[in-house]
Amino acid sequence: MTKLSRYLLAPLMATLLGSATYAQEMTDVGTPRNETLIVQTFDGKTANPDSQNPFNLYAIWRGFRELGWSFLWEMDTATGKSYPELAAGPVEVLNDAHTQFRIKIRPGVYWSDGVELTADDFIYTLDTAKKYKDKLNFVAGYVNYVKSWTKVDNYTFDVETTNPAYDVQTVLGVYTWGSQFTPAPKHIFEKQGDNVVTFNNAPAVTLGPYKIKEYDPNGFWQLWELRDDWQRSGWGNSGTPQAKYVLYKDFGAEETRTLAFVQNKYDIDTFMSPDSIAAAKARNPLIESFSKTFPYHDMNDACSYGIYINQQKAPYDKAEVRWALALSVDLKTVGLSALSGQFKAAAMPLSDTPITNPVFYKPLESFLEGLTLADGYKPFDPTFGQQMVDALKAQGTPENELPSGDAIKQGFGAGWWKFDPAEAEKLMASVGMKKGADGFYTMPDGSPFVVDLVFPSDWNKVMQRVGFSIADSWKKAGFNVNARQVDAGEHGTVGNTNSKFNVELQWNNTCVYNVNWLNGWRSFSADNVKPVDSSDALSGNYLRVTDPEIFKLVADSQKLPTEDPQFAENGRSIIKKLTEGMQEINLMNIPTTIPTNSAYWTNYPKQDNFYAAPYTWWSSFKKTILNIKATGKQ
Amino acid sequence: MGIIQYVAKRVGVYLAVLLIGLTITFFLPRLMPANPIEAYISQLQSRANGTLTPEAIASMRASLEDLYGLNGNIFVQYVSFLKRVILQFDFGPSFAFYPQPVNTMILGALPWTLGLLLISTVLAWIIGNLVGLVAGYFHTKRSATVLELVGILLYPVPYYILAVSLILLLAYVIPIFPLSPTFPVGAMTPAKFGMVLYNSILPALTLVLAGFGWNILSMKALAVATTEEPYATYARLKGASNWTRMTRYVFRNAMLPQVTALALSLGTVFNGAILTEILFSYPGVGLIMRTAASSGDYNVLYGAITISIIAVATAGLVIDLFYPLLDPRIRHQ
Amino acid sequence: MSATILPEATAAPTRPVGRRDSLLWLLNTRLAVGITIVAIFALGGLILPFFAPADPALQSTYLKNMPVSWMHWLGTNSLGQDIFWLLVFAIRNSLILGVLVAIGVTIISTVIGLSAGFIGGNFERLLMLVVDSVITIPLLPLLIMLGALIRANQAFLVLAIIAFGWAWGARTIRSMALSLREREFINMARFSGANTFDILLREIFPYVTAYMLVNFINTMLFAINTEATLAVIGVSRVEIPTLGSIVFWALNYNALFTGNYVWLVAPIVASVLLFLGLFLASTGFNAAFASRRGVL
């Protein structure tokens, strides 16, 4: 080596060595890893990442709903109560008929480009939504709800609703997951004129404390950066966001995701399957599930999974057949096969959560235990939770992770229906359906009876596995099942169309989040009943309820405020009727498996640290962002 | 027949094939039970629980039908589809991601698919043929059988298995390559291009491995056959070196069917793309096709499949027109 | 001439077509190995299922994720199914599917190819147009698109593969027919008064048989591979055990990650061996026929 190169080499080596010791881990997108919270996207890869117009559907995922936009009222997932975000306080009712309301917004909220948010933005949003409502696809939730609106001053506007309304805060604000009523920046959109319908708005000017730094034109990731002026953003008054950068990225199919997660490549996952989470925890102790004990995951989703039955179609129109199907589901085995036992059973057509339990489940406990069928049989089994614990113990789950005593009902639910194929056979026989020579039930006239069970394919792995397991359970009990896993499009079509619908695993009509059951069951009315062979699509009432008494209860309740005890009582009456006739075989709360990685961030919401639900695509994420702590790991 | 007549006839067949292909493409997705409108609405519902009222859904349905152009007689739709595609090459808006135009979606994804697959196909062809040539020429030697065995063992392995095994080996057990790609954004700089390359090596490797087995085997068979031809023997007697015989005599003649095969496989590139892109989350046309199929997005499917059909048909046309130039024996027919 | 003996001279002398001789000329190493492998799979797949203790597709028959033991030769999986019996039924189902598709494709492609080659004229041109159009349509994307229909009914898969798989074979057979049409002995037969059908059957057919057999095996390979590919991405009836669906479930339940390697490796090894066997048989036949014709 020449002298010169030797002189150059030494300092070079020194610099390299030096930088190696101080080398900070950077993410693939060029930000410091310990300042970036990396989240697996809820909806995988986006096909049109340029679409950032809040009037259209796509600008809600990959962070828009949580970090980019803001709403008048948000939902506190820990308590189930609505709280004001952009609004200055609760909505003011102006008349006794409950049709005129005044909404005041907080002054001092600025868009990310420095323009202040005023009532003009809201007026413009309402005007545009109404003018182009046939062309915009994310305004239907409120554009028919409000009839007219007027600006009062820069921070106040009035709205008049089409019908008397008691739920303005949850229609013009967030009820469960999100709200369609998202204010758009007038100063940007106005210039578009009629093109507002196809306007991409990329990169978007945001109202929340984060702005878009960069996004992948192929739709795999989006990087958010904390605004310098975050304190005057839409929810800047709730606390200090802890992460300078938030990266939403799609890490691919579960096989590749689990490996990446173990390698600390990201912090929060979405819906990883239970056995993968268990294996990941074994390999990397920094990975945690929502709870250290069974059922390990948060079970407080607003909706519950159930087997929806087309009650209008024979032979499902007979309650005996429906009950027979319910009693032939071995939920214990289904849960063990499909979910490794990590689920919370819910016997009535709604989730059993800390919010709904005191209003609906606890008061009806005696009803369930006393429920008797026509032949004197009592189908409810309150020991279901204990059976799960025993089965899990037999499979080798450590005892300190299993709940005991009262915690069993909290963990596995208040109980479920008995698994009794013998009783099912009696019920089927009572309506003339006996087992044929091949061991499968036949119709009263002797023709084969095939249960066409439709459930999701890969796009909802949990339901996919549950579906196959239920089919297996039914087959063993004597029902000939055609188990069909379908794509999302077909799943929706089958559920909405009478002529195609027989039995389907669904959840869109069993979503009661809090005492306001009307939000989920408003559609139980005679207008939403179509003929049994109709090919027209339904827009609600997917449970195919036809009971006029239930319709009356719904109509009556629309005139009641939600705080009225009669309102809750009506809800309970509806639930009782649905359960007595087994109009839907409800299975469990939707298990949301959200594992977290504490390599770079800690203090995520957990069972024993429950400041919010663990979801990253709900309002809960706003609380998460305010509460997480950086570990400072290099 | 005269050259002009031959070319004209061949081009005529080409156009007819395209038309028939387009027609079949149009009608087949309509067989699917997935209605794009319902798919869209259920997408909304499944994620936005409780935010939609029945009236809202009903009105959305009506307006979507209008927007997507799905009302009316199916033959009317077919004719307007043909007009739009042939005259303007416009496939309309995507249904699942309205109002994103299909052309934009596909054009964005096309360079990825073409880049990855063209390069790996050509690489597999070159490597496979070289190995096959040597193996075929020296087919009496032991090492040739070994090389052929490599081909035999690789060829029947299903692609998915190859891909999953490689991911496990090279991205997890020995983490050289990333498990999921991150493609950089913005203007292409050399550093960013390097990242693209780095993230593409694993999928390319699986494609090359999957493809070159066949090339080894077919080339070897051809080379063996050609080596025994009289003119090759004559060259040996003439005293030409091994190298000259291998390249000038055997290779030139054995190459012809292989070139045909290459052209055809370049044409069917889109077919092979789907699996690779699904497995490696590679942002190409295949991945778009997969999402479109599950949401009943007719327009995107039309666009993607039409491109594939055009590629294959054009490859065939090119072969038929240029092959006579390469093979003098056919020229005079 | 030279010291090297040309292959033509060493090949068996060309025998007149159609005579029944001993089939010793068929044997070469490749073919022997290939046929042995396929025979093992076929016999195992057809006979063993009768001895199965339970329907392997039923879930929770046994404890989950048991290791390899005398009770369970390949252990059990996360669904409580015995992997060995699952594999046996899978091989049977895959083979049956392959054979069904191969039969359909061979019949259709032979009929169309021969008639097109022989009858010629506008009939041939029209048929070839159809063939070319079908060839250009990409099969995999199409099957994925029709996935919903396939999931409803496995028979649809068989029909779909047949419907789009016959084109290549028809094309090749047609060119064979074209070249044969002009050969000496055909003209001889024609002059001696035989009609088209007799010519087809007695003179052409035996030539084409060789190709048909090889094509049959290749189609089997193609069909099994296509079904496995579809099953692995979930676009098929995955509750029916086939080689692809076992891989699907193993990946679905993340078998590699959770440590149940046998679940994933067993069907892979079985697939590779089966394909290897089919492939060797196919090329073995090819080599045998070629040497018989004195072409190699």
What is the topology?
The complex is a heterotrimer of chains A (about 625), B (about 325) and C (about 300).
Chain A: H1 3-22, E1 36-40, H2 64-68, E2 73-76, E3 81-84, E4 92-93, E5 100-104, H3 119-131, H4 140-143, E6 146-153, E7 156-161, H5 168-171, H6 186-189, E8 210-215, E9 221-226, E10 245-249, H7 254-262, H8 274-283, E11 287-288, E12 304-309, H9 319-327, H10 331-339, H11 357-361, H12 365-370, E13 380-381, H13 384-395, H14 407-412, E14 416-417, H15 421-430, E15 450-456, H16 461-477, E16 480-486, H17 488-496, E17 503-506, H18 518-521, H19 548-557, H20 565-580, E18 584-589, E19 596-597, E20 601-602, H21 620-627, E21 629-630
Parallel strand pairs in A: 1-10, 15-16, 15-17
Antiparallel strand pairs in A: 2-3, 4-5, 5-7, 6-7, 8-9, 9-10, 11-19, 12-17, 12-18, 13-14, 20-21
Helix pairs in contact in A: 7-8, 9-15, 10-16, 19-20
Chain B: H1 3-27, H2 36-47, H3 54-68, H4 74-88, H5 102-137, H6 142-154, H7 159-173, H8 190-227, H9 230-238, H10 242-267, H11 269-280, H12 285-295, H13 298-326, H14 328-331
Helix pairs in contact in B: 1-13, 5-6, 5-8, 5-10, 5-11, 5-13, 6-8, 7-8, 8-10, 9-10, 10-13, 11-12, 12-13
Chain C: H1 7-10, H2 29-47, H3 83-119, H4 121-136, H5 139-145, H6 147-152, H7 154-181, H8 184-191, H9 196-232, H10 243-252, H11 255-258, H12 261-293
Helix pairs in contact in C: 2-3, 2-12, 3-4, 3-7, 3-9, 3-10, 3-12, 4-7, 7-9, 8-9, 9-10, 9-12, 10-12
Uncertain stretches of chain B: none
Strand content of chain A: 5-15%
Q: Roughly what is the average pLDDT of chain A, rounded to an integer?
A: 88
Biggest sheet architecture of chain A: 5 strands, mixed
Tally of DSSP β-strands of chain B: 0
What is the helix content of chain A? 25-40%
Number of helices of chain B: 14
- N-to-C span of chain B: 8 Å
Mean pLDDT over the residues of chain B:
76
Radius of gyration of chain B: 25 Å
Q: What is the C-level CATH assignment of the largest domain in chain A?
A: Alpha Beta
Trace the largest sheet of chain A across and list its strands. Answer: 16-15-17-12-18
CATH class of one domain in chain B: Mainly Alpha
Q: Could you say how many structural domains of chain A there are in total?
A: 3
Helices and strands of chain B, in N-to-C order?
HHHHHHHHHHHHHH
CATH topology-level fold name of one domain in chain B? MetI-like fold
Cα Rg of chain A:
27 Å
The outline of chain A comes out as: globular
Instruction: Please give the most extensive interface between any two protein chains, plus how many residues each contributes.
Output: A-B, 80 and 69 residues
The CATH superfamily title of one domain in chain B: MetI-like
The oligomerization state is: heterotrimer
